[in-house]
Amino acid sequence: MKLITNADQVFENIERLNAELGKEPEISKHFSFVHAWYISLSDPEKPMFGFSKFIGYEELDAAMYLKQYKNLDGRNTEWALKDFSEELHPESPQFEVYYKKLTEWLAELGKTPRNRVRLMIVTARPEARETGDRRLLDLLTAVADMLPLEQRHELRSLL
């Protein structure tokens, strides 16, 4: 299976996952194990949720996922999705809002989220290589990589 390559695919896959729940409700059995939820705000009044192991592959459907999920690698999909999402800081008000919406949505399916989930907002930003000169970003990244872990977390909370 091929990994996604653009944000449009991510939005489409989140919509597909939500539509597939009606056809294959068994897929929701996997929701309690999800480490990171991706949030589509195509309709800000009704955010939609998806998880990387499903939305990170091109044109995956629920039946195929249920047959292949043991062979799918969430680390690869997390990597593919990093250019199309922004992680919400767990202590931010925005995290609280979307965690509550996720909890309510999962409750409708008889599920609860893991204790420590990551929430990612799917963005429509262009890929980094299309944004022009990256030298400053590369420098900042190199400097941030040299910081101790605690200071990196502090820096991330400030961004």
Overall description:
By secondary structure, the protein is α+β, with helices and mostly antiparallel strands. The protein folds into 2 domains: 119 residues, no CATH class; 31 residues, no CATH class. Helices cover 47% and strands 11% of the residues. The chain contains 7 helices and 4 strands.
Label this structure with key terms.
single chain, four-stranded mixed sheet, 4 strands, alpha+beta, globular, 7 helices, 159 residues
Topology:
Layout: H1 7-23, E1 36-40, E2 48-51, H2 52-55, H3 62-68, H4 74-81, E3 85-87, H5 93-108, E4 118-122, H6 135-146, H7 149-158
Content of β-strand: 5-15%
Largest sheet, strands/sense/barrel: 4 strands, mixed
The end-to-end span amounts to: 35 Å
Helix content percent band: 40-55%
Rg on CA atoms, Å: 16 Å
Poorly predicted regions are: none
Sheet with the most strands: spatial strand order: 2-1-4-3
What's the number of extended β-strand segments?
4
Tally of alpha and pi helices: 7
- Structural class comes to alpha+beta
- Count of distinct structural domains: 2
Mean pLDDT: 88
Q: SSE string, helix = H, strand = E?
A: HEEHHHEHEHH
Apparent shape: globular
Report a brief summary of the structure:
47% of the residues lie in helices and 11% in strands. The protein has 7 helices and 4 strands, in the order αββαααβαβαα. It has helices spanning 7-23, 52-55, 62-68, 74-81, 93-108, 135-146, 149-158, and strands spanning 36-40, 48-51, 85-87, 118-122.
